[in-house]
Design brief:
- By secondary structure, the protein is an alpha+beta fold.
- About 25% of the residues lie in helices and about 25% in strands.
- The protein is built from one helix and three strands.
- The chain has a three-stranded antiparallel sheet with strand order 1-2-3, with no helix packed on it.
- The chain is flat and about 35 Å long.
- The two termini are about 20 Å apart.
- The model has no long low-confidence stretch (mean pLDDT about 80).
């Protein structure tokens, strides 16, 4: 990751009719990330982020 160069930041969202997506162009590669949320989840987005951060800290 240290030698990668981000030449252009093209983060956008897809039109509402499609599933939400993030598009990121790094160099000559375009990454498309689709996002979905579970309708049955009992965890809020804030809770999820906190859990992910705690897990990341424990790995250090």
């Amino acid at each position: 990751m240290g030698s990668e160069k981000i030449t252009e930041d093209t983060t956008t969202t897809a039109p509402a009719k499609d599933a939400p997506a993030l598009v990121k162009k790094i160099g000559r590669t375009t990454y498309i990330v689709r996002i979905h949320f579970s309708k049955t989840s009992k965890e809020t987005m804030s809770d999820k982020i906190k859990r992910m951060l705690k897990n990341e800290i424990q790995q250090i």
